[in-house]
Amino acid sequence: MTYTEKTKKKTTRSKSREAFLTIEGVSKVYPTAQGPYTVLKDVNLTVNEGEFICVIGHSGCGKSTLLNMVSGFATPTDGEVRLEGQRIGEPGPDRMVVFQNYALLPWLTAFENVYLAIDSVYPDKPEPEKRAITREHLAMVGLTEAADKKPTQISGGMKQRVSIARALAIRPKVLVLDEPFGALDAITKEELQEELLKIWTDHRCTVLMITHDIDEALFLADKLVMMTNGPAANIGEVMQIPFPRPRDRSQIMEDPEYYNLRNYALDYLFRRFAHDADEE
Amino acid sequence: MTANISKRNSTNSQSAIGAWWKKQSQNILPPLIAVVIFLVVWQLASSIGLVKIPGPTSMVTEQRTRIYLMYPFFDLGGTNKGLFWQTMASLQRVFIGYSLAAIVGIALGILVGTSAMLNKALDPIFQFLRMIPPLAWVPISLAALQQNQPAALFVIFITAIWPILINTAVGVQQIPQDYINVRRVLRLSNQKFFFKILLPSALPYIFTGLRIAIGLAWLAIIAAEIIMSGIVGIGFFIWDAYQNNYISDIILALFYIGAVGLILDKAMGYLQERIVPNDKK
User: Fold this and answer.
1) Distance CA B145, CA A213 (A)
2) Helix crossing, A186-203 with A156-169: angle to 10°?
3) Which one of A46, A227, A253, B43 is most buried, counting C-beta atoms within 10 A?
4) Are residues A77 and A178 in the same domain?
5) CB contacts < 8 Å between A and B, how many?
6) Are A212 and A125 part of one and the same domain?
C-alpha cells in the first residue's frame, strides 16, 4: 500500500513540469545494400506526463522504430529523444516495454517472470516486499490463480497480462506497448483494453502504444498520433480524443463525436495516406 | 453397472497380457526376428567356413568364453578379471575424462558464445582439432603424459570436448532476441542473465552436445585401451584376446561394448528429457 502511495505522490509533484517526453527533430536512416534508407524524417512530438498516446499508421511507416527510440533499443540518426530533460541513449526500466510477442521467459512461472523484473530493478527491497508487489500486480491483471503456471501453459491473453503485470510492477515512467493486443481474439482484446485502462487510471504512467485498431485508440488514448507513409515517414496529424474519463465503451460509442473522429481517422488512413499497395 | 464392470475386469485381467502383447508385438517382434535371422546366418556362415570367425554358439561351446560369459564378476588380480570389472574400469575412465570435457567444454563454449571476438579467433582452431580422430591422439598423449592412465583420460577428454564446446557456443549465440531485449530493458545483472536467461536458453543445445559426446567418449576409450598395453579395461581385453587368438572372447566383449554404449546413450537421452524444459521450443 505504502508503495503505491509513495509513487503517486511523486507523480503529482512533477506533474507541473512541461514537456515530460520530447521527440525533437528525430530522423532514422538505415544503411542498406541499395544505399541509405530513411525510415523517419524530422519527427517532432511532445508528450505530457500521464498522457495516453496511441500511434497509428500503415505497416512500414516506422511506428516501431519511433517507439524503439523512446525505449532506447534504437538510437536516432539525427535529433534526440528526451525524458525529463535527459537524453535517451539505451534501454532502461524507467521506459518499460510490453513486447509484441510477450517476451516472457518460458522456463519461469508467471510469478517468477514478474519477480525477476522487480528483483533486478529494486534489488535493495526486502524479499517479502518484492513478493508482495509481484502478487499485487498479478492480482491486478486477474492472474492470482495462474501465478505458478509457465507461459506455455496459459493462453495468449494471459501471457499478455503477465507481460503487462511485469511492466507495471517496476513502476516505469513511460510504458511502451508495441501492438500489445494484435494477436488476440476480439473478446480477449476488449477485456484487456478495459483492464489496461483501469490500471492506467490507477497508475497514471505515461503510455505510448502502437495499434492498428482505430476503435482501440479511440477508447484508450488522449491523443492519436497518425503517421504518414514511409519511407521518410513523419507525424501527419495528432488527433485529440476528448471523451471524459473514466470511459465506458458503450457510452462513448453512442456519442456522435465518436463516429466523426473514427471517420476522420479512417479517411486519413485509407484515403489521404492509403497504403502504397493500394496505389500501385 | 458395478457388476458389469467387475465382470469385464475379470475377463480383462486374463487377457491383460494378451492386450499388451497385441499392442507391443508390432514393436517387439520385427527387431527380435531380425536379430534371430542375423545370428542364424552368422552361425551358418561360420560353420560352412564362409567367414573365419566362430559363430555365436561359440560363446557357450568354447570353455574359456563360457567362463567369461557365466562369471562376469571374478577377480584374480592383475588384468585377469571378469568382463564386468573390465567394463567398469573402462567406464570409470570415460566418466573422469568425460566430466572434465563437460566442465571445460561448457565453460569454454559459454565464453566463445558470448564473445564474437573470441569466437572468430578460436573457431578455426576448434574446427581443425575436432577433425583429429581419437586414435591419432593416442601416440601424442602417451608421448606428452608418459603414463597410460592420464594419457587414456586425455584421449577421452579431447574426443568428447568438441561437440560439447561447439554446441554450447551455438546455444549461447542462439538466445532469442526477445530475451536479450528483456535483459537490456531490465538491466539484468550478469549473474541474473547467466542463470535466468543464458543457461536455461542454451540448455537444450548443451545437452545435445553432451549426448553426442558420451557416445564418442565410449568409442574413444576402447580405441585408446587397445593401444595402451597392460591395463584393466575392455579395450585392452580385446587386444589381449586377439594376441592369444581367443576370437570368441572378442565377440563376447563386443556385445558388452555395444550394450554399454547403448545404455550410455539412452541414459543421456533420459537425463536430457528430464532436465531440459520440454516446454521450450
Assistant:
1) 71
2) 10
3) A227
4) yes
5) 60
6) no
What's the structural domain count of chain A? 2
How does pLDDT run along chain B (281 residues), one tens digit per residue?
444 544 455 555 667 888 888 888 888 888 899 999 999 999 999 888 888 888 888 888 888 888 888 888 888 877 788 889 999 999 999 999 999 999 999 999 999 999 999 999 999 999 999 999 888 998 898 899 988 888 889 999 999 999 999 999 999 999 999 999 999 999 999 999 999 999 999 999 999 999 999 999 999 888 888 877 778 899 999 999 999 988 889 999 999 999 999 999 999 999 988 888 664 44
Is the CB of residue A73 less than 8 Å away from at least one CB of chain B?
yes
- Angstrom CA distances, B91 to B79, B94, B98, B222, B240, stand at 16, 5, 10, 10, 18
Query: Of the candidates A143, A69, A79, A68, which has an alpha carbon nearest to the alpha carbon of residue A109?
Result: A143
Model ipTM? 0.84
Report CB contact under 8 Å: B179, A93: no
Where along chain B do the CATH 1.10.3720.10 domains lie?
A: 68-275
The verdict on A99 and A83 lying in the same domain is no
Note whether A134 and A70 are same-domain residues.
no
Q: B77, B43, B81: which is closest to B60 by C-alpha?
A: B43
Q: Are residues A204 and A265 in the same domain?
A: yes
Q: Hey, are the CB atoms on B185 and A93 less than 8 Å from each other? A: yes
Under CATH, which architecture does the B68-275 domain have? Orthogonal Bundle (1.10)
- A37 membership: H or E segment, kind and range: strand A35-47
Q: Touching check for B180 and chain A: CB below 8 Å?
A: no
With contacts defined as CB-CB under 8 Å, which chain B residues touch A121? 186-187
- Domain membership of residue A119 as a residue range: 95-171
Q: Which chain B residue has its CA at the smallest distance from A170's CA?
A: B186
Kindly state whether residues A178 and A239 are assigned to the same domain: yes
Q: Specify whether A3 is located in the same domain as A84.
A: yes
Of A93, A103, A108, the CB nearest to B178: A103
- Please check whether residues A76 and A178 belong to one and the same domain: yes
A280 within a domain of the structure (yes/no): no
Judged by a CB distance cut-off of 8 A, whether residue A274 touches chain B is no
Closest CA to A57 of A190, A197, A196, A225: A225
